[in-house]
Predict the 3D structure of the following.
Amino acid sequence: MSKLPHITTSIFSIMSQMANEHKAINLSQGFPNFSVDERLKNLTAKWAKEEIHQYLPMAGFPPLLEKITNLTFTSYGRKVNPITDVLVTAGATEGIFATIQALVYLKDEVIILDPSYDCYETPILLCNAIPKRIPLNTNFLPNWELIGATMNSKTRMIIINNPHNPTGRIWSENDFLQLEKLLELFPNILVLSDEVYEYITFENQHISVHHREKIRERSISVSSFGKSFHITGWKIGYLIAPEHLMKEIKKVHQFLVFSVNSLAQYAINDYMDLVEVSELGRFYQHKRDFFRNAISKTTFKLLPCEGSYFQIASYATFSKENDIDFTKRLVKEIGVAAIPLSPFYADAKQTQCIRFCFAKDAPTIIEATNRLLKL
């Protein structure tokens, strides 16, 4: 008997496999196809020759923990304790899993805002807790009336994702004010804030739980070196949480992975002295604008993209197909792979929208949009 009977092969794996089979351009999975910074590669090569290949401390390489606290202060003006409040994780997914396993209990309710990334629900179910999946508004921003109506004495946690995957929307000041009002009514609810695209925002600045004095002491933030430094295959990220919460999370982390690989931590620690994460938004804004300009010549309608490296596009004006059939046809007939939006919803809601990843080099984007012009 399966603990997770409804879990099947993820849509990301399916679409990437189809892209390989049909030699399609893969704009589905969220990974860059351009080169990693040579400086980071050189640092990795240097450290690979040193004797640094044994276990590091469970919470992380101490100098790297210091660098994370400095980055948090520089970015958000928040001072955190590197010893008690920071944890290096084996990617953001492990951080999310460890957090939920540590802090959510039997029959607790956890609010998830759909469309949502697929790693949130599983650890909730493994806690024998109850995921309460609430749809965002049609503009893919929070429906605060519905969220408020769902919160109750059984609600243990709300998971927020900002900037948002898959839609690329970011929260406004008003969104956080609404959240803070609700949390005043329910003082035991925790906030798990998935901010892995925090440095990839464009016209409007990212607002983090680190900025919010009213809620940051009951929040766990999730960050990703993989997303920020274009090294998704390294699977390395970090959590920041107040000591009383982090103490419990570390207990789970210790028996999931114990510690994260030493080579990555040494290399990233040095690299953080060289790289300026504030430039990341401009770097990806150029790619977003290039992609939007190219795809605007097609029949797709582009929705707002305020952050992340994903672009939502509607095909409602030229096809009535469901999004899974449409994306499969896109791979087979046009040679471009995208991700349908319905798997991000609990009820497989049809929006006739799909997600493209524009973290690609210019020739890839040009060839993909040339193919899409055939629709």
DSSP finds 13 helices and 13 strands in the chain. Residues 25 and 336 are 5 Å apart (CA to CA). The chain has two domains: 11-30+278-372, 39-271.
